[in-house]
Amino acid sequence: MSVRPWIAAGFLVPAIVLLGTLVVYPIGYSLYRSFFDAAGTGFVGLENYVQVFSGDGFTAVKNTLVWVIVGPSVATAFGLLFAVLTERVRWGTAFKMVVFMPMAISMLAAGIIFGLVYQQDAERGVANAAWVTVHDTFAESSPWPGARPRPDSGLAESGGGSYTTESAVDREGGATDLPLVGVPPQELADAEPAKKPTARDRAGDEVVGTVWLDFTRGGGGESGAIDQREKALSGITVEAVRGGEVVASAETGDDGTYSLPAEAEGAKLRLPASNFAEPYGGVNWLGSTLVTPSIIASYIWMWAGFAMVLIAAGLAGIPRELLEAARVDGASEWQVFRKVTVPLLAPVLGVVVVTLMINVLKIFDLVYIIAPSATQSDANVLALELYLSSFGGGGNQGYGSAIAVVLLLLVVPMMIVNIRRLRRENRR
Predict the structure, then answer these.
(1) Where do the H-state alpha helices sit in 204-319?
(2) At CA 43, angle to CA 39 and CA 47, rounded to 5?
(3) How far is CA 243 from the centre of its chain?
(4) Would you say residue 160 has pLDDT above 70?
(5) DSSP 329-346
(6) What is the SS3 assignment for 279?
(7) Which of 212, 270, 311, 421 is deepest in the core (most CB within 10 A)?
(8) DSSP secondary-structure letter at 185?
């Protein structure tokens, strides 16, 4: 039965009106607006497009390309890995549910979560708490971070955070004491009182002395002299240096005393920087160097589950007899995966990658929320630059419209790829 043209038009007109109002008109107006200045009254030609590829705009372009290359490929790789590894385990469904769960979280909530995860303070940021724990497990911490000599103590800074005596050791002159300050007294509550080397210590050829905190709580005492209430600094390495080489070294005991062999005679004493290094503070995840990779990692955490679900659906449609035939022919599991599974999943993988590429071109909320203001310009992307320039205080909608047109031009090839793939599948 034939359908009258006016009936068909009646159904099509509302869709055409909505399409024109919500899609065609905004695209046309953005293209038109991109050739005008911020006020929209002066024609500037391609000046806004030149601005996109220079200055802050160029940084946004570079970061967007990094996002397009890294984000979708890594998220798809994790999705493929999860889908394949959990295919034949009993708890695979539960695992997939946990991996997919971040998709239920909004970008705003995910940004707040990872803003806390990447906190520099290891007591607040989960990433640095784990990283500092691993570091401190394999690396020794300095015994007295922040300690330093008094200006008149005879110790001078010798580069790299170490301190060296201004004159060589003269054993005949008595003990070589090394007073330090800069240690909070409460950290020495359990420390032993500092002890002066005894006559027995001086009887041999050894070079002796004491390293202690030259500070008395409540005041009093004599600067440079060991008082009864002053505490010893144990575990400090003392090196005897002659001609730039270490000829002897020792470590202070619980009472702060040290004893160097006779080779130390005539050498200068050095307290190496390892005695005073500040505690390891972790990685500056949101610094200018790592801010973009860190934010991409949060995106992968969210979208790897999406990739996994689509790939798992494609994996379920692969004929099992093909996999079994490959195994019967002697192929290893890696060969089956690489030469059978992946080629058969190629259409699904293509759809996932292209979908995620389109998605990352629109990303701005994660960057806007996670990146601190100090490094937001280093993590800038085109979508965020569009928002900031048009609505975030920039007030330049001509420049923002140019960015929107550039994003459209980047999305169109991906849309064409998807359309062609759908047409090929419909012909089968």
Answers:
(1) 291-316
(2) 95
(3) 43
(4) yes
(5) TT--HHHHIIIIIHHHHH
(6) coil
(7) 212
(8) G
Which residues have C-beta within 8 Å of that of residue 127, sequence separation ≥ 6? 117, 118, 282, 283, 285
Cα separation, 301 vs 294, whole angstroms: 11
Domain boundaries, the chain: 33-130+285-427, 148-275
Q: Tokens 């010893």 map to which residue?
A: 232
- 391 residue type, one letter: F
What does the block give as tokens for 125? Answer: 């940021």
pLDDT-derived band of residue 428, with 50, 70 and 90 as boundaries?
low
Residue 233 and residue 279: Cα distance in Å, rounded?
17
Distance between CA atoms of residues 227 and 233, nearest Å: 14
Residue with tokens 């005894």: 198
What pTM does this model have?
Answer: 0.76
Which CATH code for domain 33-130+285-427?
Answer: 1.10.3720.10
Phi, then psi, of 124 in degrees rounded to 5: -120, -40
Question: Hey, how many other C-beta atoms are within 10 angstroms of the C-beta on 412?
Answer: 10
